[in-house]
Amino acid sequence: MENIFIILFGLSMIYISATSRLTSHINILIIQGWLLFFICISGISNEQWFNFGLFDNIKVNLPHLYSIIFIIVETLVVKAFVIPMFLKKVLRKTNAHRDSEANIPHFYALVISSLILFAGFIAASIQSSVFELISSLHFGVSIAVIIISLWLITIKHTVLSNVISFITMENGIFLLSLSVANEMPIIINLGVLLDIFIAVFILGMLVNEINTKFEDLEVSQLSELKDYE
Amino acid sequence: MINLILLFPILACFIIFLFKNKNLSNMMITLYAIIHLVTSGLIGLGIIPELSQNKFFAIDNLNKIFLIVLSIVYMAVAIYNNEYMKNENINKLRHYAYAVLLFIFSMTGAILSTNLGIMWIFIEGTTLASAYLIYFHKTKHSIEAAWKYVFICSIGIALAFVGIILLTVATGNLSSLYWADLYKNAHLFNPFWLKMAFVFIMFGIGTKMGLAPVHFWLPDAHAEAPSPISALLSATLLNSAFLMILNVFKITILAGCDGYARLMLSVMGFLSLFIAAVFVYHINNYKRMLAYSSVENMGILAIGTALGGNAMIAVILHLIGHSFIKASFFLTSGNILKIYDTKKIKSITGLMITDKKTGWLWLLSFIGITALPPSVLFISEFLTIKTMLEKWSYILPIIFLILLTIILYGIGKAVLSMSFGNEKINVNRQDFDNRMYVPQFVLIILAFILGLYIPQDFSNIIYNAVIGF
Fold first, then answer.
1. pLDDT of residue B299
2. A56 in a domain, yes or no?
3. Structural domain spans, chain B
């Protein structure tokens, strides 16, 4: 079950690379938030401690409960609700609904991101002793998602789609952190979440400022600072 | 004591929030600087032992140097800041004070943290806290610089987090990110994943440190930020990123796969020198010139780290010297900007006649940063080249020297043409308070004294810091 969600998560990146409407990109962010939630929950449900007796002995199971609460907050509240809502607000304010002039036609973008995802699956199927330390499908898909996001940042033209690609990259990194058997301590997870959240918030504010100071939200506007004048 | 320097800025932010007073903002910045300097001096030099048992923050042999450098530079900036910012309106000044306090707080947190994850959080925190400071002037240029800064650094730091995840893969069953545990168990780590982790952390945090080829935010941000902030960015922020790289590098040494890390550090170091040489040569913006000089000096630090051994002593000396001199250089550039109201090198001549003290500071900073004696950078670069000759072939030291000479020529041409010549007509002569001269002067004197004489106690501190590299 977990694998299906992971594959769907990878496929969502292909959808982002092939479309130009920013609203649908934000909707994909919501879907990714839900998918990450399902991936976490189906991963947790395989753990030994996950059973109906979880709530019987609250004191012993407190760390597990914390991690469940944290996952719900991180995936459903922040990734699937707060960040997309905030971006939608920015979108309404700036009236930039499309990013139609990417450097590469959508068809080619679709092909290239499919190839990267395919390479991710191939990496996941490598049989090697070093890959025994991690869960390979998580690893392959998340690396593919990170690379596709970085590549999208370079080809997209508006600053808002750059922010969206940045968030999909963070989602990819979240998936990567799930591939590791050692869980990060909750305090570090919280700090990371807070940082990313504030980063998105500041980027959103800057998008608003760019919108008021410049003619439009094209990245090419932001090239006035040069070494040689 | 550590708790004091970490809790005070948060308290100060609340006080500024509650009482809307113009003087209060600057006062809190200065008060924090005093507390920071006294505390870090006392615990760093071991005058009083650290009593609080804080799990996440502690002082050790290496980070005490970074902490003291941060304190001294911040103190100088805070004094300068009082005069530099006196004409801003109250609201802007309050926001500025929040951002500065949080910026110093996150740098202190990053330097003192005993845990890799916590350090990452604080380094990302520095980006977020300083975003407003770069955007302070609210012009088209400053928004462009702030956007590039936040975006590029956030991506870099996100990649560093990938590195941390891969490091946890390498640790196997350790499940701890405390530096002490990582060092103790480094020999058990999986070398493949450790190398992968180092690549990601090096590129990610290297972005923050300003190493080429991931330095693109640096010239823009340094040039557009107000001068006190440029000084803080260059003299303290880059150091705290460097500390994280040093710590991770130490893990690779203990794990026995440092060859790869050394190669990467030296390649990025030489590339930084090359980029700085190419851009400094023809540059027409003096703040960007100083920014490229920071790229150069970070490159030298990376090369020194790659060399190891005696070069590590050079690295520590270089780090201290660069921080002091570059802070002084940037603060002096603030004076020049106020007098001439332009950042163009070609529009400025006769600085010595217009404002003699600023002119002298500009020249002395130049002598310091280009490693002419008696600057401490002379000793550190000499030691680096000496170690390079011992460890590597003759070709690399020659390339190193050629690149340094080009940079010396580039900076020298600009500084000399600005300092001498006829005075410009219609220049906005200003009567600066001593607070806009003394901090730079003290920083330069410190760097020059270290170039002539290093006290025994201080050299012991340096020796202890570089054990294990």
1. 96
2. no
3. 266-469
A193 contacts in chain B (CB < 8 Å): none
Interface of B with A in 155-214 (CB under 8 A): 155, 158, 161-162, 165, 168-175, 177, 190, 192-193
**Average pLDDT value for chain B:** 92
Q: pLDDT per residue over B94-114, tens digit each?
A: 999 999 999 999 999 999 999
Which ipTM did the prediction report?
Answer: 0.92
Contact A169, B158 (CB under 8 A): yes
Dihedral, CA of residue B134, residue B158, residue B195 and residue B254, to nearest 10: 70
Per-residue pLDDT band for B421 (boundaries 50, 70, 90) equals confident
Q: What angle do CA B317, B319, B323 make, to 5 degrees?
A: 120
- pLDDT of residue B253 exceeding 70: yes
- Is A202 domain-assigned? yes
- What pLDDT is stored for residue B263 in this prediction? 95
Domain hosting A42: range is: 2-49+62-217
Determine the distance from the C-alpha atom of residue B12 to the mean position of all C-alpha atoms in its chain, rounded to a whole number.
Answer: 24
State the residue for tokens 């910026």: B103
Q: How many domains does chain A have?
A: 1
What is the b/e burial string over B372-384, where b = at least 16 CB atoms within 10 angstroms of the residue's CB?
eeebbbbbbbebb
**A130: its two tokens:** 């070093």
Q: What are phi and psi of B285, to 5 degrees?
A: -135, 115
Q: Which residues contact B149 (CB under 8 A, 6 or more apart)?
A: B127, B130, B131, B134, B217, B220, B221
Taking CA–CA distances from A215, the nearest residue in chain B reads B140
Chain B CB contacts of A223 under 8 Å are: 144
Dihedral, CA of residue B169, residue B170, residue B174 and residue B175, to nearest 10: -30
Inside any domain, residue A228: no
**pLDDT band of A30, cuts 50, 70, 90:** very high
Per residue in A160-210, pLDDT tens?
889 999 999 999 999 988 888 666 777 778 778 878 888 888 888 888 888
A209-228 burial, b for 16+ CB within 10 Å, e for fewer?
Answer: bbbeebeebbbebbeebebe
B322, B375 contact by CB (below 8 A):
no
